[in-house]
């Protein structure tokens, strides 16, 4: 029985280590793409970076402001910070006119305002259409929050107007509000997006069924039209016949072999889906967006010119962070995981007890930072382990004294 208990404990430890490693990798991916030592302001409007908002310096009722990772450590230590995850095309505000007399310790020479920055209620610690904080002490309903890739707000799964698909971490989401601000995305959604499972009223569900029936009728009609009208000569759009666009009008970077505007081609197919709820998109869907001049203008007018850029994605940013971390580390398998394989049962159990004690103490140590809204710095972690080493030496010395 002891052996079985040992087996369970050993497996449990490995599982815990793997889970901790996964969480560590996620944190490294978010922070690894940003510099923790230098203010990002000199880089201008950074394509994507980890950001924070300081409730101590710019509380609700004032002007929203965002600060980079390095400034959160060096300039706002001990302040109440909101972690904003990542934002695109943002320039660090630390020490500008929004912060009164406070100057940035890392880069003081800043313009008064960063006019191209975009702000939302996230900068005051509020999220979703319900405009609530996260975590929300008044919300007792377990729920996940998912970020819209356009407005970059975080929304509760139950407030998306649709069911959250499985493996959501591998997909991108556009909220219903942003879909309506860029309505051409509904055309792409009918062909490229994850099929919807609505959480709406029976009436809206019936609308979805009707649209599906209409799509089948359209497919039947297209089959009949195919015998009389070659697709490569003319395209039927909204009941009218439109001439093919000249190749010269297309951008040289258009998809290989593409002559038509892809959006127009998809629209001509007539397939639709209910324009309700958030839309989830599979990986690499952005590569299928049309790159003709007309569509690029359409993206710009809707404020989503970044969409065709696959390097804009959070996944691309996180991969950059992982590469940076691996380049600066030892690489390969976790040394602790490898060491376990070479230990006997007694040694493994000893490590289990030591690890569990350390994990409990670290959790209690970090809990104080969470309660005070403080950012945990590398110095804080270093201090924790120095205390651990001191206690370990005391125990060892005490043992030697009594043994002698």
Automatic annotation (TrEMBL):
<dbReference type="InterPro" id="IPR003126">
    <property type="entry name" value="Znf_UBR"/>
</dbReference>
<keyword id="KW-0808">Transferase</keyword>
<dbReference type="InterPro" id="IPR011011">
    <property type="entry name" value="Znf_FYVE_PHD"/>
</dbReference>
<keyword id="KW-0832">Ubl conjugation</keyword>
<keyword id="KW-0862">Zinc</keyword>
<dbReference type="GO" id="GO:0005737">
    <property type="term" value="C:cytoplasm"/>
</dbReference>
<dbReference type="InterPro" id="IPR013083">
    <property type="entry name" value="Znf_RING/FYVE/PHD"/>
</dbReference>
<feature type="region of interest" description="Disordered">
    <location>
        <begin position="198"/>
        <end position="231"/>
    </location>
</feature>
<dbReference type="GO" id="GO:0008270">
    <property type="term" value="F:zinc ion binding"/>
</dbReference>
<comment type="pathway">
    <text>Protein modification; protein ubiquitination.</text>
</comment>
<protein>
    <recommendedName>
        <fullName>Putative E3 ubiquitin-protein ligase UBR7</fullName>
        <ecNumber>2.3.2.27</ecNumber>
    </recommendedName>
</protein>
<dbReference type="InterPro" id="IPR040204">
    <property type="entry name" value="UBR7"/>
</dbReference>
<keyword id="KW-0833">Ubl conjugation pathway</keyword>
<keyword id="KW-1017">Isopeptide bond</keyword>
<dbReference type="GO" id="GO:0061630">
    <property type="term" value="F:ubiquitin protein ligase activity"/>
</dbReference>
<keyword id="KW-0863">Zinc-finger</keyword>
<keyword id="KW-0597">Phosphoprotein</keyword>
<feature type="zinc finger region" description="UBR-type">
    <location>
        <begin position="37"/>
        <end position="109"/>
    </location>
</feature>
<feature type="compositionally biased region" description="Basic and acidic residues">
    <location>
        <begin position="201"/>
        <end position="231"/>
    </location>
</feature>
<dbReference type="InterPro" id="IPR047506">
    <property type="entry name" value="UBR7-like_UBR-box"/>
</dbReference>
<comment type="function">
    <text>E3 ubiquitin-protein ligase which is a component of the N-end rule pathway. Recognizes and binds to proteins bearing specific N-terminal residues that are destabilizing according to the N-end rule, leading to their ubiquitination and subsequent degradation.</text>
</comment>
<dbReference type="Pfam" id="PF02207">
    <property type="entry name" value="zf-UBR"/>
</dbReference>
<feature type="domain" description="UBR-type">
    <location>
        <begin position="37"/>
        <end position="109"/>
    </location>
</feature>
<keyword id="KW-0479">Metal-binding</keyword>
């Amino acid at each position: 029985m002891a052996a079985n208990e040992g087996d369970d404990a050993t497996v449990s430890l490995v599982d815990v280590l793997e889970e901790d490693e996964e969480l560590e990798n996620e944190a490294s991916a978010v922070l690894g793409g940003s510099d923790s030592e230098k203010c990002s302001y000199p880089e201008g409007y950074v394509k994507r970076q980890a950001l924070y908002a300081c409730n101590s310096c710019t509380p609700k009722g004032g002007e929203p402001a965002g600060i980079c990772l390095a400034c959160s450590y060096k300039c706002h230590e001990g302040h109440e910070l909101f972690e904003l995850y990542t934002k695109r095309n943002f320039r660090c505000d630390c020490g500008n006119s929004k912060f009164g007399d406070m100057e940035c310790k890392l880069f003081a020479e800043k313009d008064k305002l960063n006019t191209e920055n975009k702000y939302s209620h996230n900068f005051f610690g509020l999220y979703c259409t319900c405009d609530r904080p996260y975590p929300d002490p008044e919300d007792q309903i377990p729920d996940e929050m998912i970020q819209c890739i356009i407005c970059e707000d975080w929304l509760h799964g139950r407030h998306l107007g649709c069911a959250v698909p499985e493996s959501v971490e591998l997909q991108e989401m556009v909220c219903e509000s942003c879909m309506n601000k860029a309505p051409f995305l509904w055309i792409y959604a009918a062909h490229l997006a994850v099929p919807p499972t609505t959480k709406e009223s029976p009436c809206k569900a019936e609308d979805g069924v009707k649209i599906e029936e209409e799509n089948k009728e359209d497919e039947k009609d297209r089959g009949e039209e195919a015998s009389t009208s070659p697709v490569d000569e003319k395209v039927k759009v909204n009941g009218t016949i439109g001439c093919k666009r000249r190749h010269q009008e297309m951008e040289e970077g258009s998809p290989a072999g593409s002559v038509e505007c892809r959006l127009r081609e998809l629209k001509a197919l007539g397939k639709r889906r209910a324009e309700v709820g958030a839309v989830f998109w599979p990986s690499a869907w952005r590569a299928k967006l049309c790159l003709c001049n007309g569509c690029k203008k359409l993206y710009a007018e809707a404020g989503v010119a970044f969409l065709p850029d696959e390097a804009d994605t959070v996944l691309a940013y996180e991969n950059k962070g992982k590469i940076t971390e691996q380049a600066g580390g030892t690489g390969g398998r976790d040394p602790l995981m490898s060491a376990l394989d070479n230990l006997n049962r007694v040694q493994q159990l000893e490590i289990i007890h030591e690890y569990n004690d350390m994990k409990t103490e670290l959790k209690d140590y970090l809990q104080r930072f969470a309660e005070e809204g403080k950012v945990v710095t590398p110095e804080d972690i270093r201090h924790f382990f120095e205390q651990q080493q001191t206690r370990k030496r005391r125990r060892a010395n005490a043992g030697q004294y009594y043994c002698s």
